[in-house]
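Hi all, long-time lurker, first post. I run a small reading group and we've been trying to get comfortable going from sequence to structure in the token notation. Rather than ask abstract questions, I figured I'd post a concrete chain and ask someone more experienced to write out its structure so we can walk through it together at our next meeting. Sequence below, copied exactly:
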Amino acid sequence: DVQLQASGGGLVATGGSLRLSCVYSGFTLDDYAIAWFRQAPGKEREGVSCVASVNDDTYYEDSVKGRFTISSDRAGSAVYLQMNSLKPEDTAVYYCAAVILCSTSFHGYGVDHWGKGTQVTVSS
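-- Answer (accepted) --
Happy to help. Here is the structure in token form:
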């Protein structure tokens, strides 16, 4: 049974940092890549970052490049999203998901399993 659980959200001031965790079970990173998405109020869900299953290549949405870092812990069945220099526009519910390919997941394709989200709020 595939499961993903995101955690680590919270309230932080502009410029602060948070580390999100996605703990997964029922599959390995050889089976799926893991992507982070976010959805702000009134906006569509968007891809934020992804770590590929085959070679651990990483992908980032342009607005988070240089500020967010995705990493994987295969032994611990977890993927992390370190978020630094947070901005109010980063405020959203963040979700992790098991995806077929990082390159297509940001466009909504091949997202097979979703975890429940975690709220990130950045105060101005």
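A couple of things your group might point at:
The longest strand covers residues 18-25.
The CA atoms of residues 38 and 94 lie 4 Å apart.
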